[in-house]
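Data availability (excerpt). The following record was deposited with the supplementary files.
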Amino acid sequence: MKVTADHLTKVGLELLQSAGVDPQEARLVARYLVAAEMRGVPTHGINLLPAILERIAAGQMKVPTELKVIADEQAILHIDGGNGFGQTAAAEGMSRCIDKARRFGIGLTLIRNTNNVGLLALYSLMAAGEGLIGVCACNGAASMAPWGGAEPFFGTNPFSIAAPGGEGDPVVLDMSTTVVARGKIRRAARLRERIPLGWALDAGGVPTDDPEEAIRGTLAPVGEYKGYGMAFFIDLVCGLLSGSRYSREVRTFHQPQGPTGVGVMVGAIDISRFMPLDHFSGLIDGHIRAIRGSAKAEGQERIYLPGEIEAERERLSRAQGVEIDTPVVKAIDGLAEIAGLSVRLEHGEVPE
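Predicted structure:
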């Protein structure tokens, strides 16, 4: 079904507040969850609410989020996330990076002891929207084996980078170091769908199209050993260097097994320290025109830029409503009923 973005935000906001989250932080978290849905990435969207509420109720996630500055020296910042909301920690970290990039040309924040941050692109886009280049990465619970191994050791360890897009939308890359994010496997399991071969291996290291077997097994790294190498260094910076958990120590956010210990890196680069921003904009406009005008593969009518499909989905969601999977609608409305709230996702459905 399709729901208006405003109503989706309202439901998320009321559910978070019912769990004791203060209005300001609840508004930020709900906005980030809905933004992921609008960009067509439901694995990082409103379906995270049941896990969030479960962790809060079990005392395995602290609200309100209390961030602690460990170090603040010129271009760098080191934050302890206090086992609170990853969205709060990452947004604050990037905001501080933007300020530091204005002062020093570059800003870098490492965050330890936080939780699931949701869609990484939203943080790198914060910088791009200010005329900067933004980067974001984080580690996660073990789901990928080292290249040549059969035991889950590294997380999907995603990475995002964004830059101003000249006259158009910012360009943004947001990718996991596995062929797909684990959320897509969980979504296929919820919807009882098969997954493409090549996404994952079962516990015996054999390619599988069964999402349940994939959850018990490992995800395939993107680019084989190259994805493993990327996951290794993201874990090194976000986990080891930040002082957070890493490799098999990071716990899943989707089961109440204790604090996750996720580590995050966010950064910003001031383009104007290297060339005037309007000159960069002219260069990127020409670069984009050249890409679009380059020879297309047989059967292809259009060449997309990184993040362009998601930006178009966001505009479509704003105009026509946000599409939500039926199992998620039932789960969220069930939580609202348990909490004694009158709001329901179905109340905001957009007529066909």
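Summary of structural features: The chain has three domains: 1-57+321-352, 66-178+224-310, 180-220.
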